[in-house]
Amino acid sequence: MAECSEKCENCSFDFSEDKQKGVCSIKEEFIVEDHVRQLSEKRLTETDKQKVFLGTNVENVEAPLSDEPPVKKFKHDDKKEKLRGQNKARPPPFKAPRELSLCPWIADQTTAEPEKKCLNQRCAFLHDRKEYLKIRPVDIGTECHIFNVTGKCPRGTTCRMGLRHLTKDGFNIVDEKRFEEHKKRSPSTMNRLSKDLQNELRKHKYDFAKAEAIIKANDPSRRKMQLQYSKSGSEIDNGEICEVGAEYQKPKLEVTETTDTSDNSNSVNAGSNVSACDMSHESAKPRIGPVDDSDLIRLRRSEKRKVDWRSKILLSPLTTVGNLPFRRICKEYGADITCGEMALAPKILKGAQEEWALVKRHECEDVFGVQLCGNNPGVLTRCAQLLNREIDVDYIDLNLGCPIDLIYRQGGGSGMLNRLNVLETVVKSVSQVLDIPLSIKTRTGVYIDRPIAHNLMPKFHEWGVSMITVSARKVP
């Protein structure tokens, strides 16, 4: 301390204080001055140059003398238009000139096809194949992967690896045998949204009768009413209350006999008292084959399709990471069960393309699941019925652990753990509407000092959940 005090004679700090804040001066050569942004004339368009240098309103120009009063100026007349964005009129980093590129309409023409002609009169691409071959860039490879897999390259003459599938004149070569085999094969990517299904969803014409009946049966207020009826011992009319999963009652037959003297024959008039819930499941389209009674009798847990979870490596759903290419790589490294990214149930029901892209499945995924997130029993049950019927999926995963504020505040994700009545209705309804297993992803609890996962796990099992994944932490 003595040496330090000798070196810093002019220093005004008191070293005796233990809580003295350290102050260090910066050398002048390391000080960066404030940068003044200057507008470059080279990056301005002609209109922007007039706005900046000439001005939109020139006030120095003398107006001609006249007896008329001056024109009234409005408030916004003197306001100059500001230039928006940065790097004004900057050209794109790379743009292939169209005059040196072959028109895509004629690029994939084969020798067996008639000559293709571009119908666009304003097309700026090159249409002379021979001229393009003279300026065509050198190939960057010798093997075209698309041609080896499908038998035909859609890039044709413009392919940068088209040595094997191009003639000397620049026409595209097609391997007929391989191309026909590729046509017969099912697409490698499944679960695409068709236009017909998208229109039905957007116009609200899709039939959700099964999901609506299940939601109605699992309504908490309806369960209370059923308990009251059971305690009082009164009978419940089948037409008023129709619970999915209850024992199916055959329609009652009313038989009346009438005697006719002319032919001495008996006529039997039978009338069936069919409940409104059963009638809602009948379809107007004629069906061929066995009659399906799954809408009347709930499937038992042993009758559902099963997934063997034991001793398997499960790739958890990773938002913004676990897309289809990533899952294909993980399958090569040994993942047994995969699951798509978290999909929002309301957007699935609206037919949003960006949300349906999350449920796509590759042919290499042996066991594949879709994770749903929502805050409403009706929306989640309808979405589960839709996916179970329309796409190829092995199980549905219900997200009860998403900590995103936007979802949590709306009561979805981990926010549903605090809404036990809604949680029970959601899990029961989704499990009953599916003929595939239902899994749940949850957390230990919403708050760090109040874990609730150990209390919910037995209830999840009773409500029909096949597998539970616990993230061993609270909601951050």
Strand content: 5-15%
Number of strands: 7
Count of DSSP H/I helices: 17
Helix/strand structural class = alpha/beta
Describe the structure.
The strands form two sheets. A five-stranded parallel beta sheet has the order 2-4-5-6-7. The longest helix has 14 residues, at 377-390. The protein has 17 helices and seven strands. Helix 8 runs antiparallel to helix 14 (377-390), helix 8 packs across helix 16 (420-433) and helix 14 (377-390) runs parallel beside helix 16 (420-433). The relative contact order is 0.07. The two termini are 47 Å apart. Among the domains are: 97-185, no CATH class; 314-471, TIM Barrel (Alpha-Beta Barrel), CATH 3.20.20. The protein has helices spanning 2-7, 46-54, 104-107, 129-135, 145-150, 176-184, 195-202, 209-217, 220-232, 276-280, 324-332, 345-349, 353-356, 377-390, 405-409, 420-433, 453-463; strands at residues 189-190, 337-344, 361-362, 367-373, 395-400, 438-445, 467-474. The protein has 476 residues and is an alpha/beta fold. Helix content is 29%, strand content 9%. It is extended, with a radius of gyration of 36 Å. Its EC number is 1.3.1.89. It holds the Pfam family Dus. Belongs to the Dus family. Dus3 subfamily. Residues 64-94 are annotated as: Disordered.
